[in-house]
Amino acid sequence: MRLALAGSFVQQPHSVLNPASPQARLVDRLWDAMYVTSIVVFILVVAALLWAAFRHRDSLEQADDPAQRRPLRTVVILATGLTAIILFVFLIFDLSVGRAITTNPGNDALQIRVTGHQWWWEVQYRDSLPKDWVTTANEIHIPVGRPVVFELRSADVIHSFWPPSLSPKRDQIPGNPNSLWFRADSAGVYRGQCAEFCGYQHAKMAFLIVAEPPGEFATWLAGQRDTAATPTDASARRGKAVFLASSCVMCHAISGTPAGSRIGPDLTHLASRRTIAAGTLPNTRGNLAGWILDAQAIKPGVKMPPNRLSSADLHALLVYLETLK
Amino acid sequence: MRPMRVVADVSGLPRTVFGHRSLMWWGTLGFIVIEGSTLFICVASYFYLRRNFSTWPPEHVFRPALLIPTVQAVLMLASNIPMRWADRASSRMDIRGVRNGFLVCSVLAVIMTVLRWFEFKSLHVRWDSNAYGSVAWATLTAHGTLLVLEMAETIAFTVLLFKDTAEDRDLAGASDNALYWYFMTGVWIPLYVVVFLSPYFM
Amino acid sequence: MPIDVGRRPSVDHESVRLRLEETWHQPPGLWGWLTSVDHKSIGKRYIVTAMVFFLLGGLEAGVIRAQLARPENTLLGPDAYNQFFTMHGMTMMFLFAVPVVTALGLYLVPLMIGARNLAFPRLNAYGYWVYLAGGLFLYISFFLNTGPDTGWFSYVPLAGPEFSPGKRVDVYAQSITFTEIAALVAAVELIVTIFKNRAPGMTLNRMPLFVWAMLVQAFMVLFAMPWIATVTQLLAMDRLVATHFFNPAEGGDALLWQHLFWFFGHPEVYIILTPALGFVSMIVTTFTRRPVYGYPAMVLSLLSIGFLSFGLWVHHMFATGLPQLGQSFFTAASMMIAIPSGIQIFCWIATIWSGRPRFSVPFLFVLGFVVLFVIGGVTGVMVASVSFDQQVHDTYFVVAHFHYVLVGGAVFPLLGAFYYWFPKVTGRMLDERLGDWNFWLLFIGANLTFFPMHQLGLEGMPRRVYTYLQGTGWGDLNLLATIGAVLIVLGMVLFLVNVVMSLRRGALAGDDPWGADTLEWATTSPPPPYNFAYIPVVEGRAPLWEQSGELPAVAGLRTDVRDVLLTTMLDAEPDSVHRHPVPTIWPLLAAIATTILFVTLIFTPWGAVIGAPLLLLSLLGWGWPQGREHHEEVMVEQQG
Fold first, then answer.
1. Helix then strand then coil, % of chain A, to nearest 5
2. b or e along C176-210 (b: 16 or more beta carbons within 10 Å of the residue's beta carbon)?
3. Contacts of C624 in chain B (CB under 8 A)
4. Each residue of A167-197: pLDDT tens digit?
5. What residue in C sits closest to B11 (Cα-Cα)?
6. Residues A232 and A204 sit within 8 Å (Cβ to Cβ)
7. Phi first, then psi: what are they for C630, rounded to 5°?
8. Residue C467 has pLDDT above 60, yes or no
9. C228 at the B interface (CB within 8 A)?
C-alpha cells in the first residue's frame, strides 16, 4: 500500500516504504494497516459530513422532529464506539511491533559504535584488542543476515541515527548513551540521514550503510585494520609530506603516520569510501580537491577551514589521499 | 440593542465581599497556581537531576547548614498566626486589628527576606559548581521572588491601611493578601525539606 | 435577590445609556488608547497584532517554501534558513496562534456572558503590552540578525552556551517569557471572568460552548505555560550565569529540557485547538439553526481533551530511547485523545444533519475544517504508535501531520470565526463572494502544500533541513508543496482585500445579521463601551432564540461609576457589586518595566537590579487606590 504520489527515484534505498530488514518491514506493515484504516475512516466521516450538509441545504422549512434524535444518538454512540475499537486494535498492533523490534539481538551480534559529531558520523568497530579497533567515518559496513547492535553516542549536540530502510531512528544524546539493533536482509547500499536538528549542517549529515555478504564484510574489516599504505611514488610521498606539514593534522588521523587527531574523520582508508563530507559528495578527485580548498562553499558552517595550497601541493595531496584505500 | 425588560433590582447587593465571593480572591488563587507550578517544576527538576549523581550532595560538596534555614522555616510557619489574626479582623471590619496584624507581618517579611540571603550561604555550594548547586539556588531564588513580592505588597497594604482614606474594600484586599501569605509561607515548608533536609537522607 | 416582576414593561432608557456612555467610554486620542482598559478596545488591537504576526510568520513560511522548491537551492544559506524556520515556528506558536485565540476570547467572552468587561481589565491591558513588547523584541532582534536559530523547541545542548554562543538563544528564551506572561494573565482573567461575571441565570450548564472551550483553554494555559516560562529561564541561567541544568558534564541533563519543554509543548497544541473547537460549535449552531447536538457530551469531551493533553508529552520523545513500557502508556493516552475529538466531530455532523445548513463563508470554513482535521487526526493516531513514530519522527510526515492539525484544525475555524464575528466587531459584513474564493484558495492550497509532505517524510526527508541533495528524489513533491504555498498566499491576500474593502464599504450588519442565539448578538454592532445597557438575565442555553422579543434584565447598578455585577460561580445568582477600574497608564508602565527587566537580563545579571525595582514600583503605582471620592452622588439605573 503506497500513497498515490509514490514512485519517485531515490538513489539509494532511503525510505520507510522500502524496508530491507525485519525491523523496518514490521513498521511498514503497521503503516499499511493504519493507512488503509485511515482512508476508510476519512471517507466515512467526510461522506457523513457532506450528506448531512447537503441533505437540507439552504432549506428554510422548520421540521425539528424529535423522533429523528433517537437514531442520531445511536449513530453517534456507534461511531464513538467504533473509534475506540479501532484505536484499541492499533494499540495492540503497535505493542506487538514494538516488542518484536526490541527483542534481544542474540549473542552473535556485531557491535558498532556510532558517534555523532557536528556534522559527520564517527564509526568504530571495537574488538577485544584495541589494536584491532577500526575507526572510519560516514560509511558503515555490515554483514547481511547478522544482527548488528549500534551503540549510539554524541560528541557534541543531539543527533539522530536513522537509516529508514533498515531501522526506526534513535537519538544520540550527550551524556545519555543509546543503542538499537537490526539485521539487514539483503545486500545493498542504504542511505541514512541525521534526523535531529543539530545546527548549520543538519541537512548535509548523511551516511551510508553498506550491507554485504559476511565474507566480503570480513575482507573489508581486515582491510580497514591495516595501517595506511606507505606511499611509493614521489608524488604521493610529497602529498604525505604536505598532509603532515599542513593544518590537516590538527583534526585528522591517518594510522601509521604521526597524524592522530580525532577531531575530524579518520582518513586512514579515505579512498575506500564512496562519499566525502558525510554523504554529501561522491568521492572523486575533483570533489576532494574542492572540499580541501573551500569546504565552506560546499557545507557552510562546517568545521573544516579553507586551505591555501599551491596547485602542485594540492595535486600531490590528492594523489596521496587516493592511495589510502 | 435588543430591548430589555427589567425583572430584578440588584442595587441592594453588598459591595464588599470576602473569600471566594470576591474577584481578587480568585485572581490571587490563579497566581498561586502559576507560582506553585513554578516551584513544583523546580522540585521536579531537583529530583530528576538527583539521578545523575551517585551521592547527594555530589562529591566535594558539604551538606547545607541547617540553623538559619530551620529558623526561617519556623518563622514562616509562625508568621501565619498574626496574618490569620489580621485576616479574621478584616472580615469583622476591624481596621485596628488588621493594621496591627499587618504591621507585625511587614516586620516579619523583612526579617525573612534578610534570612533568605543567609540561606543561600547555608547551601555551601555555588550555583555554577554543578547541577545540584544550580537547582538548589534556583529553587531558593524562585521562592525568594515570591517572598520579596509579598513583602512589598504587605508593606504597601500596611501603609494604605494606616491612611485616613482606607475603605472597606481595602480590608477585603488585605484578606486576599492574607491568602497569598498563607501560600507563600506554607509552600516553603516542603521546599525547605527538599532543599535543606533531603541532602541528609537522599 | 429581590425579584421584582411587577416593575415592567421596558422603556428605552436613553438617559441611562448616555450616562453609561459617559462613565465607560474610553478617553479620546492617543492617551485614551494608551490607557484603555476596555476589553473590546484591547481585544481588537490584540487580534490585529496577532494577525500581523500571522502574516509575518506566513511570509517566513513562504521564503522557506521558496528555498525548498528545488534541491540544493541557494536562496537561503543555513544560517538564514535556521533563523527563518525558528522564527516561523515561534511566530506561529507564541505570537499568533495562542494570542489570537486568547484575544478572541478576551473580546467575545464578556459579551457572550452578558458582562460589562473582563474581571481584571488592567491586567488585560498589561498582558497586551507585554505581548506586544515580546513580539517587537523578537522581530527587532531578527532584523538585527540576532534571530533565534535553534528551533522553537531549542533543544539543549545545541541551544546551550557552548554550541550557541551569542545572543540568539537568549532572544528566544526571553521573548517566550514575554508571551507566556501575556498568556498566563489572560488565562487568569478569563477563568475569573467566566466564574464570576456571568449574567444572572447563566449557570454553568447554560454557558455557550465557546465559553466552555475558553474556560478549558485558560485552565490548560494556567497549568502548561509555567513549564515553558520556567524552563526557558533555566536555559537563560545556564547561558548567563553558568548554571548547569542542561550540562551533562556537571550532572545536568539534556533530556530534562525535553521533558519540561514538552510538558508544556503538547498541551500547547490543544491550547490552540480547544478555542477552535468552540468557534466551530458556535458557527455550526448558527448556520444550522440548531443547538449543538449533545451539549453535555461536547462539554465533557472538551474537559477530557484538556486533561488528556497533559498525559501525552512523551510521545514527542519516542526516539530518545526511554523504556518501552513507559512509552506504551503514552501511546495509549495519545490514541485515547482521538475519542473526545471524535465525539466533537460526530456531534457536529449530527447537528448539521438535523439542521438546515446555510452555506455562508463561516460554514464553509467549518466544513473545510472537518475534512482537514480528520486527516490531521488520523495521522496523529499513527504517530502515537511508538515504532511508527520512530520512523517518521522529525521528518516531513510530522510536518504534514501538525500542519493539518494547526492549519486545518485551528486556522480554518479561526478564519470562519473572523467571517462570523467581523460584523459584531466592526458593524460591517465581510464580502461573501470574496470569502468563497478565500476559502477555496486556502483549502486547495493547504492540501497541495501539506499533503505531499506525508510522502516526503516516508521517503526519508528530515525536518529542519535547509536544503536536500539532487538525486534524493524529493524535488518534485517539494515543488508541488511550494506551488500550494503560493495558493495559500493568494488566499490570504484575498482575505486582506476583503477586510480592507469591507471595513469601508461592507454591508451594514445590524445587531444580529446571522440570527444567532448567544448574548453578544443582543447588543449593537459594534458594541457600546458598556456592552449592555442592562445586564441580561439568562433562562436557557440559547437566550436569543428563547426570547423572541424583549430580553429580561436586571437593573440597579450605578451608572455614574463603573459598577459591574458579580454572580455565584455555579448557578450565576447575583451576589455582589464590584467597582471596576477606570482607564490608567500604569499597566503600560508596568509592561515597560517588565521589558526593561527582561531585555537587560539578556546582557547582565545586574539587569535584575535595574529592572526589578522599576517593576515593583510600577506595580505599586498600579495597585495604589486613586481618586477616592467619599461623597459621591449616587445615580442608579432607573427602573421603568
1. 40, 20, 40
2. bbbbbbbbbbbbbbbbbbbbbbbbbbbbbebbbbb
3. 156, 160
4. 999 999 998 999 999 999 999 999 999 999 9
5. C556
6. no
7. -95, -30
8. yes
9. no
Q: What is the pLDDT of residue C13?
A: 72
Strand, helix or coil for residue A150 = strand
* Phi, psi for A189 (deg, rounded to 5): -110, 125
Place of cell 544520540: A172
* Burial class, C540, CB count within 10 angstroms (exposed 0-12 / middle 13-18 / buried 19+): middle
Residue linked to cell 564517527:
A122
Q: Cα separation of C624 and A210, whole Å?
A: 74
Of the candidates A30, A179, A301, the beta carbon closest to that of C78 is on A301
Q: A5-14: per-residue pLDDT in tens?
A: 333 333 677 8
* CB spacing of B37 vs C223 below 8 angstroms: yes
- Secondary structure letter of residue A21 according to DSSP: S
Q: Are the beta carbons of C251 and B132 separated by less than 8 Å?
A: yes
Contacts of C483 (CB under 8 A, 6+ apart): C448
> Distance (Å, rounded) from C-alpha C91 to C-alpha C76?
19
pTM: 0.94
Residue C586, all three cell numbers: 500604569
- Length reported for chain A: 325
Tally helices (H) and strands (E) across chain A.
Answer: 7, 12
User: pLDDT band for position A161 (50/70/90)?
Assistant: very high
Q: Which amino acid is at C220?
A: M
What SS3 state is found at B83?
helix
Residue B172 grid cell: 477585603
Instruction: Determine the Cα–Cα distance for residues B167 and C291; give it in Å rounded to an integer.
Output: 47
C394 at interface of B, judged by CB pairs closer than 8 A? no
**CA nearest to C273, candidates C350, C206, C338:** C338
Region of residue C637 (phi > 0: left; psi between -120 and 50: alpha; otherwise: beta)? beta
Interface check for B155 against chain C (CB to CB < 8 A): the answer is no
CB-count burial class (<10 Å; 0-12, 13-18, 19+) for B88: middle
A72-122 residue pLDDT tens: 889 999 999 999 999 999 999 999 999 888 888 888 899 999 999 999 999
**How near does any CA of chain C get to the CA of A256, in Å?**
33
Is 70 exceeded by the pLDDT of residue C204? yes
Report the relative pairing of strands A206-212 and A139-143 from DSSP bridges: parallel
B31 touches chain C (CB under 8 A): yes
The three grid cell numbers given for residue A299, joined into one nine-digit string: 557545507
H helix or E strand, kind and range, residue B9: strand B4-9
**C-alpha–C-alpha distance, residues C116 and C579, integer Å:** 11
Contacts (Cβ under 8 Å, ≥6 apart) of A70: none
CA distance B120 to chain C (A): 15
Q: Between helices C39-68 and C121-143, what is the axis angle to 10°?
A: 30
What percent of the residues of chain C are helix, what percent strand, and what percent coil, each to the nearest 5? 65, 5, 30
pLDDT digits (tens, 9 = 90+) for A207-243: 999 999 999 999 999 999 999 988 989 999 999 999 9
Residues 107-166 of C with CB under 8 A from B: 119-120, 123
Mean pLDDT over the full length of chain A: 90
Least confidently predicted of B17-31, C439-453, C484-498: B17-31
3-state class of A53 per DSSP? helix
* Angle separating helix axes C361-384 and C324-336, nearest 10 degrees: 160
CB-based contact C78 A46, cutoff 8 Å: no
